Amino acid sequence: MAEPTFDARVSPLAHLAERMRAAAVTGVRGVTLTEWPFLTMVNLRVAPASAAADRIEKALGARLPRRCGHTTSAGPHTVVWLGPDEWLVLSQAEPATVTAELREALDGDRGSVVDVSANRTTLELSGPSARQVLEKGCPLDLHPRAFAPGRAVSTTVGPVAVVLWQVDEAPTYRLFPRSSFADYLARWLIDAMSEYRGPEVP
Fold first, then answer.
1. What pLDDT score does 200 carry?
2. Which residues contact 100 (CB under 8 A, 6 or more apart)?
3. Beta-ladder partners of 46
4. In the prediction, which pLDDT does 10 show?
5. How high is the pLDDT of residue 8?
6. Average pLDDT, 10 consecutive residues per value, the chain (202 residues)
7. What is the distance between the alpha carbons of residues 163 and 1, in angstroms, rounded to a whole number?
8. What pLDDT, on a 0 to 100 scale, did the predictor assign at position 7?
9. Which CATH superfamily is domain 40-118 in?
10. Hey, is 163 helix, strand or coil?
11. Which residues, other chains included, contact 147 with Cβ-Cβ below 8 Å and sequence gap of 6+?
12. Where are the domains of the chain?
């Protein structure tokens, strides 16, 4: 009889899960903060105009975005532009599977495929007041005319460096801080959310 298996991993923000739930605000000023732990993240470097890049795009089912702030998505994968020859692949598939497929597509050509899933965690900030919370500590212009669903850039929130991705028009944002800075960022966001627990605006 096979031994039962279990996931013994502990996410970087497991100790703050209850505080994040308690910080949630409902209504027209609503905003919520949750952690999405263990999301697959693979750092990819390859020359964009190369046969290897073409093979990688076929493996992902999505083109590699060519401009700062752009993302592309297909199936379980979203590809975030980090630099002229660098991308972050976010996926719902297993890290080993994604890494193996991309290394096979690279096929020994110049480039790199590195599983960085343990390097960062994912925070999701969502609700009518999510943009206002971020604007307290993010230098970007987050107004919809400048930053819309599908946009993702490297920036800072508070003093913490993150990759910031706007997922939808709710608005919902996903923030990808280094795991070692996740506690500080989560506490900063919880504090920034506290203003919206006051009386609701009609």
1. 46
2. none
3. 111
4. 86
5. 64
6. 57 96 93 96 96 97 96 97 97 97 95 96 97 97 96 96 97 97 98 80 40
7. 45
8. 54
9. Heterotetrameric sarcosine oxidase (3.30.70.1520)
10. strand
11. 69, 140, 141, 166
12. 14-37+121-194, 40-118
Tokens linked to 33: 């903060």
**Which two three-digit tokens encode residue 41?**
């993240």
Strands 160-168 and 152-157: antiparallel
String of b and e for 43-68 (b: at least 16 CB within 10 Å)? Answer: bbebebeeebbebbbebbebebbeee
Q: What is the pLDDT of residue 198?
A: 60
Measure the CA–CA gap between 69 and 133, rounded to whole angstroms.
Answer: 21
For residue 63, report the phi and psi dihedrals to the nearest 5 degrees: -75, 150
- How far apart, in whole angstroms, are the C-alpha atoms of residue 154 and residue 178? 12
Which DSSP state fits 4?
A: P
Which helix (H) or strand (E) element contains residue 79? strand 77-83
Q: How far is CA 60 from the centre of its chain?
A: 18
What would the pLDDT profile of 144-198 be if each residue is shown by its tens digit? 999 999 999 999 999 999 999 999 999 999 999 999 999 999 999 999 999 988 6
CATH for the 14-37+121-194 domain, from 3.30.470.20, 3.10.180.10, 3.30.1360.120, 3.20.20.100 = 3.30.1360.120
